[in-house]
Structures are given as structure tokens and as C-alpha cells.
Amino acid sequence: MGTGARQRKWVILALLTAAALLLRLLDLSKVAPDPFYDAAVRSMGLSWHNFFFGAFEPGGSVSIDKPPVDLWLQVASVKVFGFSSTTLRLPQALAGTAAVPLLFTAVEELWSTSAGLAAAAALAVLPIEVITARSDTMDAVMMALSVLALVLIARACSSGRTRWLLAGAAALGLAFDVKLLESLVALPGLALIGYLGLPGTRRRRLMQSGAAAAVYVAVALSWLTATLLFPAGERPWAIGSTNGSAWNAAFVFNGTDRISGKPVEGQFPVFQRGQRYPQATQAQRDRIPIVPPSPTRLLARIGPLSGQRLGLMLLIAIVLGAPALALSLYRGAGSGGAASPPRQARRPERARRALAAGLAVWALTGVVIFSAMARLHPRYVEGFTPAVAALLGIGIVWAAAPGGRARLLALIAALAATVFYVQRLEYGFTLVWWITLAAALCAAALAAGRLAVSSAAAGRLQEPRAAATLVLAIAAVFSLPLAVDVRAINEGIGDAGHVGALPRQEQLKLSAYLRAHQGAARYELAAQSATEIGSLIVQDVRPVLVLTTYNGRVFTSVPRLRRLIAEDAVRYAVLDSSCPRRHLPGDAACSIPARWVRANALDVSRLAGLEHTGVLWLLSKRTT
User: Fold this and answer.
1) Which of 97, 267, 423, 510 is least surrounded by CB atoms within 10 angstroms?
2) If we measure between CA atoms, which residue out of 189, 346, 376, 138 comes closest to residue 268?
């Protein structure tokens, strides 16, 4: 690659990274907060004990349901820049941005520069990734660590050095520490790339892979193991667990329960076929339940995980990426599309084939899991978005490059599918559809024109025509995703939950009344459940006595509650819902301590200026 080509490569990559950063940071403060994790960030900043365990409330009695590695970054961000909605999301936005040049590095290392740039562009504008990176959840950080693992493993395949493989295993282990089983979606594909791509005998590769597996397990379980070094009495109760253990929360609550669809967070909305859901805006789409498991779930027309946000780019990644990877596996390095000859000569064919096989397995693993998973949140698909972007980048470069009728037919089929799918997703012939159609027609015409010119003319026009075809094809496929990004930014769309979000006026009145009347009580209040008053913790940063954890599991017994009331350690309780005569098992409002409060405490909701009664209760000593 000449000096001019290298300079162009870095300029294009810098522009793509800047665009990714802009999409993830623009109007970030408009995104609604996630009180559950924000409360933990507040609490973790108060002491090293809370920081290490990921304490949910300032007293450190309960912790979040996951390792707090990602939240450590958020605590650092708010300590340096101050506590705000923007600083809470800054680590996620930066991680999502960093993944763009990282993915370029990995794909270029084992495929080609043009494919790396196209893959980076795909990840930069992929709507579900942009939306997730703008949320204060940990999925974007997990995704970036998975891409870092891919980069390091790719370097190991190119250099043959074991240390890069071990570093990649450690990065993937950190991804597990961030988002647990979601990170495992990348594991089979990355492991296959490492095993097939490393030089040497089968015995040597098995030994290297075994060492990498040991490093991965050690890093992945490092935080969970470290919690066991503390006496049980010093460890907060992990929310969601059945026995207080962080291990139980990691592998049962966040593992088997979520995969099987067992209710873990109350009622999960169910998609109703035939119902006409409002979907004129991205905010309305967010309120539509994800369609039930099916082979075409990820291509759904509506909902928060619709074709607008993932399905379109996934479809084109399959249509173009699958033949590109298959031909690479069959024919070797010569089938992958344009690449710089000097770098191509240094790129081992073995490692290139390993990347093709590994990306195919990574993408297939994600499609199978997320198509069949009973309880699915859109942000979970970050487990395989890098594979989708890499497949799309490799496929579109392969199809746009000169090479005969097979590539032309594949490109025309992909562009036709894009035009048809965009029209369905846009519900008509919108401006975005017309742009897509125009770009698709121009790209197809240029590609077809290459086959009609004479061989002499083809030699002179091949590279400019191929470059123009690629740019137009990218414009056709990326027009709708980019438009969706802009809409999501304008509407302040994120992909975090709103667990513990109190109505703003209720929260302000509660806080004012409690500050004026609670005296020297240790706890600001007793909360019906562990997660109902997250936004109040964010505002007041006071210890909270938790009565129940998830599914109404009693955490503070009535005798202990009565003892704390007698000691004047807690004076008020908040019960944000009533207990109906017919209720589901595990309803926190119907737990034994909640019923005891209603039977023995004094309702002071009206005195506090609250709109509804039965919310704030005075726990005087005479109630004991």
C-alpha cells in the first residue's frame, strides 16, 4: 500500500470514528435515566466496600445482580466530571465509539483494508448499537471488549505469538465480568478463529488453546471468586439471587432463568398478534413488546428490535457475507475482494479462513440464541453486533469488487432486498426509500456496466467503477439505519430499563417530607422492594431498608423491622402499590412485611402532599 493509500485509509477511519462519536454523544442528556444502575453508581461512590460489591443502596445491604466492572467506569466518570445523565453514559458512549476502529483493525488484519473500513462504517451507524451505547447499561462496554478480544486473537493468528492469544482470552474474560452470559455469544466464534488461525501443529494449537481457556476462566470468574474472600456477613445480598450469592445471581437469575423465560422482574409484556400498535415514532416503537421467538424474529417489521434497528443490516450481512465467507473457505485468499497486494501477501491464508469460519459461527450463534430466547431485551443483541457488522463489511466489498456474474447477481439481489425491505419498514415511499432506491439503481447499473465494457477499457476503469459501486451500495444499505439513528437521537431514545423511576412530583414531595421529619433515623425509609425507589436514592443518597428483593422474597423480617423501629433507626416506609385480593406469587406488595406495615403503621401520604394514599407510612414506636 502506497503512502497516499495509507493516508486515505487513516483519514476515512478517523471520519468514521468521529461520526460514531457524534451519533453516540449528541443530545445524550435527553435520554431517560436508568434509576436502578444510577442508584448503584451513587451508592458505590460512597465507600470502597460499596464500590467493590456494586452496592445498590448507600447502606450496602444489597447489591446489583451483576459484577460491577462496568459501573466502576461510571463511578470514575462521575467522580471526575460530576454526577449527571451525560457522565453516567459517557463510558458506554466511548466504548461504542472505540469498537469502530477496533473492528476495522481486526478485519483489516485478516481480510482487507476496504472490508475493514466497510465493517467499521456498519458498526458506526448500526441503530441498535447506537441506541445501546447511548444508554446507561453495560452492553456497549461488553461489546467493545469482545471486539478487542477479536483484535488480539487476529494479531495472534498473524504473528503466531501466544501472548496475543492469551491477551484476547483475558479481554473476553473481562467481557464476561461486564455482562455475564451475554458475552458467551462471541466465545465459540472467537475460540474457533484462535484454534484454526494459529500456525503450527495441531498439538501446539491445542496447548495454546488450553492455556487461553485457562486465562479466560480465571479472568471471567475473578470478581465472583474475590467476593468469597469476604465473610458472608460483609457481603451484600445480590438482588435476584435465591440465597444472596453473587454466583447464584450470575448463573441462575441472569442465566438459566432468563433463557428459559422464567419471570424474574415482574410481568413481562407479551406481543399480541393482530393488535395495531402505534409506531409513528421511535418512542412508540419502544413500547411495543418484542415479537415471540421464531426463525424470523430478528427481521420483524415492528417493535424495539425491528428491521429498522437491526434486521435490515443483518439481512444484507447474510445475503452478501455468507457467499463471501463461503468462497473464502473454498478458494482461499483470492476470493475475498480487493486488498493491497503487499499486505495481502503477509496475511496467512490459514488465518483468513479462520476469520471466515469464526465470524460465521459468531453470527449464527447470535441468530439462533436471540431468535429462540424467551426473554429478550434489544440491548442483548450486542452479543453479536460486531459479527453482523464484519459480515456486512466483508460481503458488500466482495460484491462490489470486479469478478464476474456471481458477484453482480449477489449485489443486485441484496440491493433489491434492501429496496423492498426499506419500503415495508418505512410503511410507504418515504424520502429515505427514494434515496435507497436511487443509490441501489446507480450501484447496480455501475456493476452491470463493468461486464459490458471491453477488456482494455475495463483495465482503465475497473478501480474507479468498483469504488463508486461500493460507495453507492453502502449508501443504499445505510440510508435507513442512519435515518433511524437521527430519529432516535431527536427523540432521546435509549435502551435502559426504568426500574425504580418514581413520578417526578411524587419523588420531590417524598424527599422534602422525609428530610423535614425523619430526625436522626439511620434509614431514610423502608422500601417495599429493592428496586422501587431507585430514583430517590439517586437524589438523596441515603441508606434504605429493603423489605423484599426480587419476586417478593423477604429480606427484612417483621421481627427485625420492629426492632429497628424501636431503635428509631427507621421511621417511614414506602409501599408503592397495594395488594389485590387475587395476586401473583412473588408480588412484593403482598409480602409479609408489606402487609404488616399496612396493618400497623399510619398512612401519612396526604400529609406529605402525595396524590395517592397508601404510599407513605409512619412507623412509630407504638406500632411495635
Assistant:
1) 267
2) 376
Enter the pTM of the model. 0.92
Q: Which residues of the chain have pLDDT under 50?
A: 265, 333-346, 454-456
How is the chain split into domains, by residue range? 3-30+65-263+298-490, 504-623
407-411-417 Cα angle (round to 5):
145
User: What distance in Å separates the CA atoms of residue 56 and residue 53, rounded to the nearest whole number?
Assistant: 9
Distance CA 490, CA 204 (A): 53
Q: Are 55 and 40 in contact (CB under 8 A)?
A: yes
Distances (CA, A) of 219 to 72, 172, 224: 16, 9, 10
Under 8 Å between Cβ of 390 and 359:
yes
* Residue whose C-alpha cell reads 425491528 in the numeric block: 306
Compute the distance between CA of residue 618 and CA of residue 477 in angstroms, rounded to an integer. Answer: 60
CA atoms of 54 and 226, how far apart (whole Å)? 13
pLDDT at 342: 40
Distance (Å, rounded) from C-alpha 283 to C-alpha 330? 45
- Which letter, b or e, does each residue of 353-384 get, where b requires 16 or more Cβ atoms within 10 Å of its Cβ? bbbbbbbbbbbbbbbebbeebebbbbbbbbbb
